[in-house]
Structure prediction request, 336 residues.
Amino acid sequence: MGVGVVTVGRRSFLAGMGVLGVAGCGAEQAMADRSGEHQDGVVSPAQARTALVAFDVTASDRAGVGAALRAVAQPIPGATVTVAVGASLFDRRFGLTAPQRLVAMPAFRNDVLDPAWCHGDVLVQVGSDQSELIEAALARTVPGLEPRWRISGFHPDGQARNLFGFKEGAGNPAASDEGRHVWVHAGDDEPAWCVGGSYQVVRLFRLAMPIWDAESTARQERVFGRRKDDGAPLGRADEHDEPDYAGDPDGKVLPFDSHIRRANQGDKRILRRSHSYRRAADDVGQIFVSFQRDLDRFETIQQRLAGEALERYVLPFGGGYYFLLPGGDVTRGLLA
Ligand code: HEM
Prediction:
């Protein structure tokens, strides 16, 4: 590693992918049966495979929207289905009351967004340990909905490691603490129907594997601020030790541009549930998914990441902001 195997700049990496120059980002009973306060598939452990399908609504009235949402939320035995909606569903077409903080995902500094891979009125996530169910979910047609973009993801070797070889999850809130970081609560200055839901962020990253693989492990560890083998923060012994930023005021151990030092969250945390994707041998990446009680906490972190060392190795090309509907028959509140 690190012996000049490939010296590809980010620009030629992008050009090779054909993305330079693209600007801007561009069952009725079923839902009633989902009687809990929250949808499954958020705080439950991530499954081995996942499918994300974004749709646009072609139905012409509220009844059509309701039927489409109920159909798409239908449980699939052996899989977990979650349904979220995008800001565009709340345009003038249906006169629906939007979650207070839901906007279309903006383009961030490092982004080269492809409009064909962004946004959507509805986002369906299907998680399963069975590949066939994921394939079926990707191929599904639903009256009143037109697919906009779709992608499937996995955990390499069934582990919570990304394709850059690093463990993920240490900085997530503890299970006992997830609720207050993830769910919209009564009193959150949101429409009543939003309580029990969550803001879902999806960011699609292509990973520049040749550039990454050419780096030494020591360099890679300084990009994330964690050790590659066991995930411990640099300077500490164990994955679950807190990084010692106070003891490293000059950034000698944990560089200021390392991912975790930039992403350090304080008390307002997000819950990350990312997967990897592989669409071709030379087209692999990260499907970053996070759930949070409001979008501010995501955007605060995202803005601090601007200029981080990781930027050189990733290309954010798609995704969107969505609102994960509460559990139960959500269409009752949403379409009331
Ligand atoms: C390809 C893109 C990304 C990769 C490969 C990546 C990878 C990682 C890794 C390996 C960690 C350390 C282990 C952990 O805590 O899970 C981490 C931590 C973290 N990442 Fe990312 N990440 C990516 C993008 C993002 C984005 C877009 C955000 C949010 C804007 C984000 C937010 C965080 C946060 C909040 C932490 C925990 C920091 C802490 O409190 O220690 N990451 N990420």
Remarks:
- The two ends are 59 Å apart (CA to CA).
